[in-house]
Amino acid sequence: MCRPDHFTVSYRINPWMRPDQPTDNALALRQWSNLHAAYRDLGFDVRLIDPLPGLPDMVYAANGGTVVDGIALTARFRYAERAAEGPAYAAWFRAAGLAVHEADAVNEGEGDLLLVGDTIYAGSGFRTDPAAHAEAARVLGREVVGLRLVDPRYYHLDTAFAVLDPAGGPGSVAYLPAAFDDASQEELRFRFPDAVIVSEEDAAVLGLNCFSDGHTVVHAPQAEKFAADLAERGFGTVGVDTGELRRGGGGIKCCTLELREAP
């Protein structure tokens, strides 16, 4: 995770961002601190990267890269405003002892590359280049299934698709069908016939931008129907409001990069 010490909305690279509306940095920091505390209370090992001045989106740690079995595929950002985040996270990965692979194709880390079981589901359409899918398969040694996003509000896969059970299975994810093209919807129905289908209302508060360890889901409290569906399926639920950070286009999962170390 990365503290939002420099968080603000000073440019617009997604529909959520409104530079004309001032952000409340103190509120963003309190909300982030609540998320950090929730993770610690759940027993997670939370490590921090130092925030850098001039990189207001660095708080969205999920975009910093993708780590599988101790291999870190670095991010290459589409927009110049975020380009320096890639090297910053790469340096942190090296210092942490991970095997670092510098990406050739544009990819925005776990924003668009999500592991379910032994398969990586990879978004494209707005940020990550489809060429990055083949690179991820080669570097990380996993099957990669491409999913095309068509709604600009859900510009990263992790805003429209949530991993509920990292082990995989027919009901191990949740998603918003309308965020995907027809072929991707068909693929999702085939692979996850028992998925949680999330409403437009819950997706619009970035309810799908949640984090789960397979037992407990940390989610936006505004996504009430989604939380009820999760509880009905036996998941524990913890609501943490990150509404101020949502103004930059990110929520709980965006603030969370999973470090899957070598077995």
Automatic annotation (TrEMBL):
One of its GO terms (biological process) is citrulline metabolic process. Keywords: Hydrolase. The active site is at residues 156, 254. GO terms for molecular function: amino acid binding; dimethylargininase activity. Gene3D superfamilies: L-arginine/glycine Amidinotransferase, Chain A (3.75.10.10). Pfam families: DDAH_eukar (PF19420). Belongs to the DDAH family. This is N-Dimethylarginine dimethylaminohydrolase. It comes from Pseudonocardia ammonioxydans. The lineage of its organism: Bacteria, Bacillati, Actinomycetota, Actinomycetes, Pseudonocardiales.
